[in-house]
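Retro notes
What went well: the complex prediction finally ran end to end.
Inputs used:
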Amino acid sequence: MDPMEVFKIVVTGQEDFGAKKYRELIMDILQDLGLIRSIGRLYVYVDIMEPMFAIYGLLRTGIPPLTVRDVGDVLKTEGGYQVKINDEEHMSDLLKILWGRYGRERVEQPARDIVIIASDTDPSGLTVADLEMEFLQDLTDGLVRVAPEGFRNRRNEMNKDSFFFIAAEETLTPELIAKTKEKIREMQNA
Amino acid sequence: MLEPVMFTGGLYKHDLVVELVEDLGGYVLQKNVTQSEVILLILIPSEDKSVLEALIKELRGELVRAPLAGTEVAVVTPTLAIHHLPHTACDIAEYLRRHGSKTNMMGLARGVGREIAQINEYETALINEHDAAVFIFGNFRECIRKKESLYRNITVPVVVTGGPEMAKSELPYAFEYVPSIGRVAHRARKATEIGTLDHIVESVGRALDKTRADITKDPLTTSPPRVMDAVREQVPDAEYSYSPLPIALNLGGVRVKLPYERYKDAVKAVTFDEGVTLGEIATIRPSHMKDYILVRILPASETGYVF
């Protein structure tokens, strides 16, 4: 069963096998990169005679930015705050943010998972990492991997809730992009 | 006739196998030691195979036929990028190795795309040094048809693999076409996928048989394993080469993995019991692979004798 609500793929010409295989391939790659759960709908249009490859996708609701509160427990102590880290994955980001905000001399790390801040300002609300940005970077990487390798002229339009990626061997013209968008719109309405 | 077989067993007492093979007039082509296990690729006279089988049974080893032993096969992908590797290319290369062939993986510099795919002279010459080549293509029929230009000038038999079912007549320059293994992003593990790998091995086997049949029409002056043995004995530095297989066998000769300039004279001077030197019965030239030495044995029609 597809984890996506809609996954349509259209390949022009006598390429039924290619369409079926590309469906499996896209699933495999998106699954490998852990992106599949964040994509709601996916439309793929391939014209092998052109040749070009396009993907349009709708993303599931945005991911909120990661704050200090999300990566550890913040405690008020004498003369400052103590953060007990639970999620070490973003440790370097956290330190960078705290150093920038309070200065290196006020941030101390006596143990691997403890950070002490000599300040009266509560750090709980500081943004540690923009997960949405990271997700969009991973998604771009995934799309480049999905598209056939020879299609080196690429264009990627991304916003908070959708993306449109097109790759071709020849130069991408505004007409080609408009035509492809029209094809995808037809697929959506079909 | 010499039969190619593969022995897998414990390291302990495996030298008995090596000694027996030498006594019977066979050749050990390759020896791979992995911790306490050893894999030997052997050519053995077929009438004496039962003697070897008896010894291997005693040693609790395993002996299987390795139809591709003593050959070198190129596995060619459009490039070495993540789009083509690791899954399909590595699966095919590994599977060919398990059947005894020496497999070299090659990625072309500009083999990608439908209209823009190219191969250069050097790449073609390098592939032509092998006994057969496997070209791995993708899932679209039109692209596979277009990419024929990549292997049109290759003189060794080319097995093409791709996704869709296609008639052989659509690819006139290919030796055979094996479908249902196009671009995939997972390892071959299902029975059908393994079955496809078997088809590739069979197809490569047929391609090599064709070359063998061509060679028998005008037989080589001597057999490549004999040249390998003589070079190994008389150019002992070959054993100190860092390559896992210092002397690689082809159907029409050998590749000695030593620098050409320093060792060409030593290789030319290798003498056989019959009194002829290797320089008289073979062409010795630089290989396109690194600076190795390529030995191509001349046919009987050129030298006038066979031994």
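What we learned: The interface with chain B takes residues 11, 13-15, 17-18, 21-22, 24-25, 28-29, 32, 48-49, 51, 145, 148-152, 169-170 of chain A (CB under 8 Å).
What to try next: split runs per interface for comparison.
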